[in-house]
Amino acid sequence: MAEQAHAHGDHGDHTSHYVKIWGALLVLFLISVIGPIFEIPALTLITAFGVACVKAFLVMKYFMHLDAELKLVWYILAGSLVLMFVFFFGTAADVRNHEGSRWVNVAAQAEVARGMAAGDGHHGEHGGGHEEGGHATEEGHGAEGEHGGTHEAPNGGH
Length: 158
Known about the structure:
60% of the residues lie in helices and 0% in strands. By secondary structure, the protein is mostly helical.
């Protein structure tokens, strides 16, 4: 009978541990929701991504019980995260740019030209879409070309 009381006491301590972690996750959630309200970009990034990393760590360690796993599991997890960052940052420069030393993203350049011709510039406007003076039909492109601007051919003509 003493063993049952002891086991029940351990269960209560175990449950209170989960409740404490849940409370910490709830507070971190509230911080991540309140952070962007101040409209400070650095604070928003910290509360969005920083708090998300802390919450993910707490969930992995306490609810997924990774703290009781072999160190190999942590190495695999860390290696996966490192590879994710390498793949992300390794391709981010190419995704953000429209040309490089030996390549050109023709589709991206054509889309930028189309947007500029339609008035989709970054001037704080609504984007100059179809409702507000943009090209609503194909006739709006005119004789200047498919993207609404003059495109010079390699031989110097139109």
